[in-house]
Amino acid sequence: MNNTSKNGQAKAIALPKVNPAIRVLKAALFTALVALVWVLTTSSVWASGNLIVGSWVTPDDKAVVEIYEQGGLYYGKFTSLKEPTYTAGHADGLDGQPKTDRNNPDASQHAELIIGLVMLNGLKYAGEKKGQHQWKGGSIYDPGNGKTYKSTIKLNADGTLDMRGYIGISLFGRTQVWRPFQ
User: Fold this and answer.
1) Which CATH architecture has domain 51-180?
2) What does the domain layout of the chain look like in residue ranges?
3) pLDDT tens-place string over residues 113-164
4) Quick one: DSSP state of residue 100?
5) 15-27 burial, b if ≥16 CB within 10 A, otherwise e?
6) Which residues in the chain show pLDDT less than 70?
7) CA 53: distance to chain centroid?
8) CB contact at 8 A, 181 and 57
9) Rounded Cα gap, residues 41 and 38, in angstroms
């Protein structure tokens, strides 16, 4: 097939006309595909982050802490205590009364009950590293001494949590192993 005219100039080849509806359909399909990929990747991250949502028992069965998600961050509150009331012979005469946040540096918080107290604040899911899911950037409050520490959580293969509280850098801290509440 010769694409030149009698005078030696190239002839324009007529391209088939594309239906505008096909262009719109292709654009819509592409947009839907991008949206689907986004939903699948973000929902898997969200689902992985929620692996710690539930109730956990602290060492020596001293307390049960419920971890929950709110606004993409993770929090924990005391739901029960091994010893929920002050024991007989308490120095301040609080025998049998429910335990409160008496060591809080903010005196206005001293009457707050320990059960229901939010003690784990603002952890963010940081992904998986070396086979462990991790949460970072939050803090943990210890009502026993009234101090707040930076914190991280790692989910172990056996289903337990490594809860680390520290001052400054993670090197200067302590790790507790929490197990799922049955």
Assistant:
1) Beta Barrel (2.40)
2) 51-180
3) 999 999 999 999 999 988 889 999 999 999 999 999 999 999 999 999 999 9
4) B
5) eeeeeeeeeeeee
6) 1-8, 10, 12, 15, 29-47
7) 8
8) yes
9) 5
